[in-house]
Every structure is written in structure tokens, then in C-alpha cells.
Specification:
With 1015 residues, this protein is an alpha/beta fold. It is built from 30 helices and 22 strands. Helix 10 packs parallel to helix 11 and helix 21 runs parallel beside helix 22. The structure holds zinc ion (ZN) (2 copies). One zinc ion binds next to loops. The site of one zinc ion has 7 residues, from loops.
């Protein structure tokens, strides 16, 4: 299979025509009301995106380097830190680590005047072109009089234009699907350059020029720009300050304005204006010497939640490495590998269409390593495991809460902090209230500098280390380099045998002879395996099939009593009547004579995967196994489970392999009571479970599944229950849990192996879970978890009873393990109130064990606007009023030349109307179409009811419910409808296509289609 892109896989022309026609018709019909008319609601096909991703695999990485950019140098200061050597050293490191040959070279070219003038004035760049040709002395004088920290020579503008033109082409190649992603190693940097002014080593704003070019080609594009250069990219901020198509997020050293560029507008209360309100996110850092943990928390608390809600179609990274250890400008302490982590996390967005652009970074060795790790991430290599996390810096904690306070009115993904009433606020009594302080001390600094202007060199021109300091920092970097695994420098991630997969059809012999329609049926693993085949995953060169084996008694004893094993080992000798009577003595268990053998295979196959991953024969694994395991207790089977596969695997990895700490994430919709009990006092196994709890009434219906059961003795804090109270949890709720709890705690725990108890019964359409997690969301979980444990992640099947849903969900997980780009997750609704309450409870309870959960302890003001009014008028606080950004410096003034998406687009809370049109594009997959109906009215509840009862392959039919209810089996575990055959048919599905229009909400009637739709 050749590299393919999301763009090229999006179906036939006729389908696109149909979509266009539908959109046109919707617009003609006048659309719905902007906030959703009462007669409209969301109707989406839950499997549409997963099916569309079928042929999408990780494509090529483009790399842009051009020797001409090394000719740009400071003609009067040969020691200047923004030196040609910066590119040379990065290039050398990339070659040394074997990355160069794995990239496709992307040529640089001069940006055209038209391209430049989408961002800069004609006069701006003409002046710079002319200036470069003058004498050195004349250039020097002009630069020092007219600009802040700028130098030039005769080659500078050529370098800047090559950077801009080349980056435009790189971004376009990615947008068109020719390449997966790419990196541009350019100089001069660009993010400080403004519309009509060079600034801070920057002549042309490369990232802005490429973004404007992408918007020029497609006005509906949504671009996320993440700027982690240690300086504020104020040029980029100004250029998109009113444009909601660009979400600009910048984390930068600020020190209340005392750090360069000393701007009031770099503060967190600058959130964008007019339509762009909420789309400019400044994360100012008020202390230096920050560590990996601080930046990771910024990503988990702010960058990723907002990025997911924004749902960009393109991601641009202004990648400065001046926050890396040793950089004299940044004075931060980030390890080079963390840049790989940040880039990898962004690759979950926009189908992995990510373009990374070099900005600053002036400590050559950490710059080279950092840039190489960023490129490795783009190439699909696993991020290097980070060491133990430092404590979160208190000022970063404050900064994050400041940003959340300023933005929570504009986004739905900041619900974790409770609100306090700003008018009642009393700082002396409200310790749990966070008061965002808008301090600015930059003006006095600037005044002092203005007085000195012309007399001395501007003192903040650049910083440089003494030789002693340099040697000290090199020694620190050398220590960090010892933690890079050897394989990092030699082997590429995509080409080697990456994923170990196990499946054995013999496991289908375990079945319920009495009730053939029992949900835990043989077809589950068959369907999952077939889906892997349909998606072409089984033949992939980087997937390896493991032989099958049975677990030994000794291995079972790792977690179970001998008596339990003995009792189960009698199964093959018993008659069916005896088996039914034995099974009846347990909670929700059935047995046939093959059950024991299947349970041994289920466990043994998982242990085979553990061996392969821990031995290094594979990097990660997937086990398509049954019967499941997580309910099995040490002394008895429970809830369809005989032996506790994942618990045994964790113990096995610790006792027989070299793992010291194992993270078990259990996202099965039921609480894994067995795993919790087996490791309740064990600090080496961190158990995190997401499950329906329903205040103790959801299976297994025990109170110890609640959030306040944290583990005991040495294991206290190592058991985290995230209990949902109610049905209907989906991607918004699971995203919150992932970013606010699972990932931050996962980094703090720093496991050697991640095991996922992967039940798919919280998936859309599951008859037991009645939740609505999409297949792609499961893939995104796996994508992000691979940043832990050097990428050693194993996905092991537990429950999940909708055959379509589990097949696609587990397939998405395997695709994520293979490094395939994932379809984006859509956060279409505000997270449910009860789920937010659950997350708060978990964070409050566990904040004493896990530093990064303390974000749940603080309340934030209910009105940021009101707070600003109070703050600006307070004589006691050093707060400076917001100064309007001079939009005359922006390319289009306050207006846009093209239609942009209204701000409501980013804020889905009020938008209930997303129209659908059915399409038969997937009928070649043997999937039949079901009429997807336009629902008359009713809003959320009706929509979710519709989704859980009518979509997918789940068609509830109450007429058969009586018969099922009289079934002798224990029915409390699964709903009485389970006996209905309809939901078991694997071939029924609905195919609908979501169409969003730029009027935000409009409805298209969905009609039944039996063949290719025509326009
Ligand atoms: Zn910088
Ligand atoms: Zn389950």
C-alpha cells in the first residue's frame, strides 16, 4: 500500500459533488438560526470518520533546508547568537541520527511579492531589500535607529524570502496530502516580524505568510499556530488578532513584561478581538528555569483541550528551541526530548497535518537535539521517555489558571474549575479562589531604555554565557543525553517491526450454549480481527503476528489462588449441566467445556505480547482476546471473566521482565474490580479506571468503584477511579479525563509499560454501556499514551458488545499504534455537568498524591470582564489597562478580504444543528445503508436517544423483550433487550455525511439512498 492522505482518500468526485450540492441547498434554504432552531439537532453517523480513515497511513515527512540561508549573518558582530552555525549544527544532528535520509527534501524558493504582501506592506520589504545592499555601516545605523534587535547583510532578504516561499510550498504539500507533515529549518526566524516592521532578528513573518497563503487558497481552513519559542510571537499575534480562522497559542517568558519584547499585549488578557475573540491565547511565564513538567501541564491544561475544541484542519508550529536547557536567551531548563513530546501531541490533530518551522534557539547543542527530536516525532518515532517530573512551578500554576479564567467564556473545554462570584470575593477568606493578576512592569523598563537609546547598545540585544557557565550547562546536557536510549540514535520507528498482534480463532470455542445471543459472544473477536483485515492492517510490514500460547499455572498464580485455578481446570471434565450449575454460583458467568482452555489462551496470548514488547521484538502490542479478565477476582470468576488477563500481564512484566512500574488504564465501561483489588496496596501498579458508576448501581455495583477509593498502605494514591454517574458519556467527557487526569498523572508516574484494559462497551451504540465514545476517540487515547513508557503500550481487549462498534474502535487503536494519522475528534457538546463533577471529585481527592491534579482545587472568577474592570481601577495593584492593539499594523486592518467562519463555529455549546446527508460511499465495504432520519425536534436528549438506539447496528425492539426477561441467566448485568438479534448483525450501518456550512447551522433533509448520490 502506498502512502495516502486524508485528502486523497475522501471518496469519489460524485460524492464531493453531492456534498457541495447539499451545502448549496442548505444555504439557499436560508439555513437554521445561528444557534440552532428548535426543529433541529445533531445527527451524525458515529462510524463515518473511522471508515473514512481506512486507507490513511502515515505519509512522508518533508524537510526543507537551504544552504543560502547560512549566508545571512551579522556583518558587524561575528559572535551574534543568531548565527549560521545554528542551521549547520541541526543539520549535522539530523544526519547523525539517520533522520536525513528518512525525509523527502522540500526545496526552498523565493516568496513572491504577492505572497509577502498578504502579510507585510510592499514598502516594508522593499525597504529591507534596499537596505541590504548598502554599506555595512549604513545598515548598522539604520537597524539600530529604526528597529529593535535587527541585523542584516546583502544575503538576508534572500534568505528570508527563501524561508517564506519554501515554507509555503511545504505547508501546501501537506495540505494537499502529498506529505504527511514536515519541518523547515530556516533563518532568519520570523514570528516577531510585524506588518511593516522588522523586529527581534525577524525580517519576514514566515509562519504568518504560510498561514495567510493557506487561507487564501481555502478561506474555510482552520489553522492552529502553536508558538513555543521562549519569546512572544507578537508579530503573529497582531496579524491574526481578529481572525477566528487562526487559533494562535503562545507560551513565552514574560516576567510581567520585564522580559523581551516587554509588551503589554503579551499578557494573558489579550484574547483577540471582534470575531477573533477567544482565538488568541497567551500563556505568559513569569519565572525562568522552568522544566518539562511546566510545559507539559500547559499542553494538557490549555493547548490540547482548546485545540481539540477548535478542531483545526492544519497545525503550524513556531518552533523556537530557546526554552531548551542552556539557551542564554530563555534561561529555561527544558530537556531536548520534551520537544518531541509536544510535537507528537499536536500530531493527533488535523489528520496529522503538522508543519514545524524553526524560530529561535541559541544553545547550539540543545537546539540541535531539540530540533532532531521534533523531527523524529514527525517521522513517527516514539518520544523518548522523560525522567522523573519536577514539582510544577507555582508561577506556572498561576499562569495556567489565569489563562483559563480569561478564556473560559469562549470555550467549553475549561469546565474543571468551579466558579466564584467576583462581586463577593474577599481575598482574605477565599483561599481556594484564584485571583488572576494582570501585572505589567514592562513600561518602566522601556522608559529607562528609551533614555539610554543612542548612547549604548540596547542591552537586551542578546544574552551570552561566560565560558564557565557554558561548560556547566554542557555538563548538564551531557547528563540528560545519557537518558536517551541507544535505539533513539540508530533506529527509525516506522520501518521496524512495530506492533505485535495476537489473535487465535480457538478462543471462539468459548460460548454460551444456553443463550447463543449472550453479548460476550465469539463473534466479537472475529469481527475485530476481520476489521483489522479489511483495513489492511494485518499485511502491514510493521505489524508482526505472534504465535499463540496458553498461560501456565504458574503464571495464573501470579494473581489468582491455587484453589481458583484448580476449580477452573476441572471445567473440561464436567457435563454441561454441571457447568451451568457451577457457573450459576458465580456472578454473570457462563461456561462450556472449552472455556478453561480459551481462558488460558486469552491470558497466554497477552503474555506473549508483553514478552515481545519488553524484549524489544516489537515496540507495542495489541491482543484480540476473550474471555475478558478485569472482573475476575483472585479467588473467583466474575462478570464474563475467568482469569484476570491484564492484572497477570502487569505482574508478569514486573516479575519476569524488567518493568518496575506499570500503568493500567481501564476504559471498559465497567469498573475493573478484580484489578483494583489485586493491586490495591501496590505502588508499582497505577490503576486508572474510567467507568459508569451510577452511584453504585452499575455493574459490578460496588461502592469501592467510587473516586474516594484511592488504594491503601504503600499503594495509597495508586488507584484512581473516575466514576461516571449516568449514561451518555462521550468524547467531550473522555477528553477531559484524558487531558486533566490520565496524561498528567501518567507522566508523573513515569511507567515502564502501559497496559490498556480495552473494553469497548463505552463505545457508541453499545447495548450495555449506553455511552457514545467514538472509535476515533479510542485511537486518540492510544496516540497520546504512547508518549509514556518509551511508547510501550499494549491494548488488550476486555468487554464491548456492539460488534460494529468494537471492531472499528479496536481497529482505530491498532492504527494509532502503527502511527497512522487519526481522524479528528469533534467536541460537539459541552461536557456533561455530572461528568465535570466526577472529574472535580477525582482531582480534589487525588491532588494530595499527584501534583498536576491541583488544578481541580481552585475556583476561578465567574466574570473575567468584571474582574478586569475592578483590576484596572484598583490603585493598590500594579495593573495597567489594556491598550488596544494597533490594527493598522495588521494586514487587512479590521476587515477581511474573504469570508471567515463566524465565531460561533468554535463554540458549539449552543449549536444543535449539524446537517447530514446520506451517502453510499462505503457500500463497497459490504455495509448496507439504513435510512438516517431527520428528527423532528427535541434537542440534546432526543439526539442522544436517537444515537444510542437507532444508529450503528443497534435497533432496539421491545417486542422481544418479554421473552428475554424470562431468561434464567442473571439479567442485571446487561439490559433486557440484549436477546434481540438486531444489534448483532454486523452488516447494518448508517452512512451519513456531516455538512457544516459557514452560516454555522443549517439543516439538510437526509434521505434514504440506495446507490451513489447524485447532485
Ligand atoms: Zn525566541
Ligand atoms: Zn465491560
Amino acid at each position: 500500500m502506498s502512502a495516502s492522505s486524508p485528502q486523497s482518500s475522501k471518496g469519489s468526485p460524485s460524492r464531493l459533488q453531492a456534498l457541495k450540492a447539499a451545502k448549496k441547498a442548505a444555504l439557499k434554504a436560508g439555513g437554521g438560526s445561528p444557534h440552532g432552531s428548535p426543529s433541529s439537532e445533531i445527527v451524525r453517523d458515529p462510524f463515518e470518520k473511522a471508515l473514512e480513515a481506512k486507507s490513511v497511513i502515515h505519509g512522508n515527512t518533508g524537510l526543507m533546508v537551504d544552504g543560502a540561508m547560512r549566508l545571512h549573518r551579522n556583518p558587524w558582530d561575528a559572535e551574534h547568537i543568531e548565527s549560521p552555525e545554528r542551521l549547520a549544527v541541526v543539520e549535522a544532528r539530523i544526519r547523525e541520527w539517520g533522520l536525513w535520509d528518512r525525509c523527502i527534501m522540500s526545496p526552498a524558493r523565493l516568496a513572491t511579492p504577492a505572497e509577502i504582501e498578504r502579510v507585510h506592506t510592499a514598502q516594508h520589504w522593499a525597504q529591507l531589500e534596499a537596505l541590504g545592499q548598502q554599506s555595512v555601516e549604513s545598515i548598522r545605523q539604520t537597524c539600530q535607529q529604526q528597529f529593535q534587535t535587527i541585523y542584516m547583510n546583502e544575503d538576508s532578504m534572500r534568505a528570508a524570502r527563501l524561508a517564506a516561499g519554501g515554507f509555503i510550498d511545504l505547508v501546501q504539500a501537506i495540505s494537499q496530502g502529498r506529505w504527511q507533515n514536515g519541518m523547515a529549518l530556516v533563518r532568519p526566524p520570523g514570528h516577531h516580524a510585524m506588518k511593516a516592521e522588522a523586529n527581534g532578528f525577524c525580517l519576514l513573518n514566515t509562519v504568518a505568510i504560510a498561514a495567510q497563503d493557506a487561507l487564501h487558497r481555502d478561506p474555510h481552513k482552520k489553522i492552529l499556530i502553536v508558538d513555543f519559542d521562549v519569546h512572544h510571537g507578537q508579530g503573529t499575534q497582531q496579524l491574526f488578532y481578529e481572525d477566528p480562522r487562526v487559533l494562535f497559542m503562545s507560551m513565552h517568558r514574560y516576567e510581567s513584561g520585564e522580559f523581551c519584547p516587554h509588551l503589554r499585549e503579551s499578557q494573558f488578557d489579550y484574547i483577540g478581538q471582534l470575531a477573533g475573540q477567544g482565538f488568541n491565547v497567551n500563556i505568559p511565564l513569569n519565572e525562568k528555569h522552568l522544566h518539562d513538567v511546566d510545559y507539559l501541564n500547559i499542553f494538557h491544561q490549555i493547548v490540547l483541550p482548546l485545540a481539540y475544541e477548535f478542531e483545526p484542519s492544519l497545525v503550524l508550529v513556531s518552533a523556537g528551541f530557546d526554552a531548551a536547557l542552556g539557551c542564554p536567551e530563555g534561561e529555561m531548563c527544558l530537556t531536548p526530548p520534551v520537544f518531541g513530546h509536544m510535537v507528537q501531541s499536536l500530531m493527533s490533530l488535523a489528520y496529522g497535518n503538522v508543519a514545524v518551522l524553526l524560530e529561535g534557539g541559541y544553545f547550539l547543542e540543545s537546539l540541535a537535539d531539540g530540533a532532531a527530536f521534533a523531527l523524529k516525532a514527525l517521522l513517527g518515532d516514539d518520544p523518548v521517555r522523560l525522567g522523573p517530573m519536577d514539582p510544577l512551578n507555582e508561577s506556572v500554576f498561576e499562569s495556567i489558571l489565569n489563562v483559563i479564567s480569561a478564556h473560559r467564556d469562549h470555550w467549553t473545554m475549561f469546565p474543571v474549575q468551579e466558579e466564584y462570584n467576583i462581586s463577593d470575593y474577599d481575598p482574605s477568606t477565599s483561599e481556594d479562589c484564584h485571583e488572576p493578576l494582570i501585572l505589567y512592569r514592562g513600561d518602566s523598563y522601556l522608559e529607562a531604555r528609551a533614555l539610554n537609546m543612542g548612547k549604548t547598545e540596547p542591552e537586551d540585544c542578546y544574552a551570552k554565557h561566560t565560558p564557565e557557565k557554558h561548560a556547566e550547562l554542557m555538563a548538564q546536557l551531557t547528563e540528560i543525553r545519557k537518558t536517551y536510549p541507544n535505539e533513539t540514535l540508530t533506529s527509525g520507528g516506522m520501518d521496524i517491526k512495530r506492533v505485535a498482534l495476537t489473535f487465535d480463532e480457538l478462543m471462539t470455542r468459548h460460548s454460551n450454549l444456553e443463550e447463543p445471543n449472550h453479548p460476550e459472544r465469539p463473534g466479537r473477536v472475529l469481527n475485530i480481527y476481520k476489521s483489522h483485515d479489511k483495513f489492511g492492517l494485518l499485511d502491514r510490514s510493521n505489524l508482526t503476528h505472534l504465535p499463540s500460547r496458553r498461560a501456565t499455572a504458574e503464571e495464573i498464580f501470579l494473581c489468582h489462588d491455587a484453589a481458583h485455578y484448580e476449580a477452573m481446570s476441572q471445567i473440561p471434565e464436567k457435563t454441561q449441566d454441571e457447568l451451568e450449575s457451577l457457573a450459576g454460583s458465580f456472578d454473570s458467568i457462563y461456561m462450556n467445556p472449552d472455556t478453561f482452555d480459551c481462558a488460558l489462551l486469552s491470558c497466554g496470548n497477552l503474555l506473549n505480547v508483553v514478552d515481545a514488547v519488553m524484549d524489544g521484538r516489537a515496540k507495542k502490542g495489541v491482543a484480540i482476546i476473550r474471555p475478558p479478565g478485569h472482573h475476575a477476582e483472585s479467588d473467583e470468576p466474575c462478570g464474563f471473566c475467568l482469569f484476570n488477563n491484564v492484572a497477570i500481564a502487569a505482574k508478569y512484566a514486573i516479575e519476569y521482565q524488567q518493568a518496575k512500574r506499570v500503568l493500567i488504564l481501564d476504559w471498559d465501561v465497567h469498573h475493573g474490580n478484580g484489578i483494583q483489588n489485586m493491586f490495591y496496596d501496590n505502588p508499582n501498579v497505577l490503576y486508572i479506571s474510567l467507568h459508569r458508576f451510577d452511584n453504585g448501581t452499575f455493574f459490578p455495583s460496588r461502592m469501592d468503584a467510587n473516586y474516594d477509593y484511592c488504594g491503601e498502605n504503600q499503594g495509597e494514591g495508586f488507584n484512581i477511579n473516575i466514576p461516571w454517574n449516568g449514561a451518555g458519556m462521550g468524547d467531550p467527557e473522555y477528553s477531559l479525563a484524558l487531558f486533566n487526569i490520565i496524561l498528567p498523572v501518567g507522566y508523573e508516574f513515569n511507567p515502564d509499560l502501559v497496559l490498556i484494559s480495552a473494553g469497548f462497551d463505552a463505545a457508541q451504540g453499545d447495548p450495555l454501556g449506553k455511552c457514545c465514545v467514538t472509535p476515533e476517540m479510542y485511537g486518540h487515547f492510544v496516540h497520546h499514551l504512547q508518549r509514556l513508557a518509551q511508547g510501550r503500550v499494549i491494548v488488550a481487549l476486555e468487554g464491548g458488545y456492539n460488534l460494529n462498534s468494537i471492531a472499528l474502535s479496536m481497529t482505530m487503536c491498532t492504527k494509532a499504534l502503527l502511527g497512522d494519522p487519526l481522524p479528528p475528534v469533534s467536541i460537539l457538546k459541552r461536557p456533561k455537568t455530572s461528568a465535570v463533577e466526577s472529574i472535580r471529585n477525582v482531582m480534589r481527592t487525588h491532588a494530595r498524591y499527584w501534583d498536576s491534579l491541583k488544578f481541580g482545587l481552585k475556583k476561578v472568577p465567574d466574570s473575567f470582564e468584571e474582574l478586569k474592570v475592578q483590576a484596572y481601577s484598583s490603585p493598590t495593584k500594579k495593573v495597567t489597562q489594556q491598550i488596544p492593539i494597533d490594527m493598522s499594523k495588521s494586514p487587512h486592518g479590521a476587515k477581511f478580504e474573504s469570508l471567515y467562519i463566524p465565531s460561533e463555529y468554535g463554540h458549539f455549546s449552543d449549536c444543535h444543528t449539524v446537517n447530514t446527508i446520506s451517502s453510499s460511499a462505503h457500500s463497497s465495504d459490504g455495509i448496507q445503508l439504513v435510512d438516517s432520519k431527520r428528527r423532528p425536534d427535541g434537542g440534546d436528549s432526543l439526539a442522544s436517544n436517537f444515537l444510542t438506539t437507532s444508529l450503528g447496528n443497534l435497533q432496539l425492539d421491545n417486542s422481544t423483550s418479554e421473552a428475554t426477561r424470562t431468561s434464567p441467566s442473571r439479567t442485571d448485568y446487561y439490559p433486557f433487550q440484549f436477546g434481540n438479534n438486531n444489534y448483532s448483525s454486523p452488516s447494518v450501518n448508517t452512512i451519513t455525511k456531516t455538512v457544516r456550512t459557514n452560516s454555522s447551522c443549517a439543516v439538510v433533509d437526509t434521505t434514504k439512498k440506495t446507490d451513489e448520490p447524485s447532485s
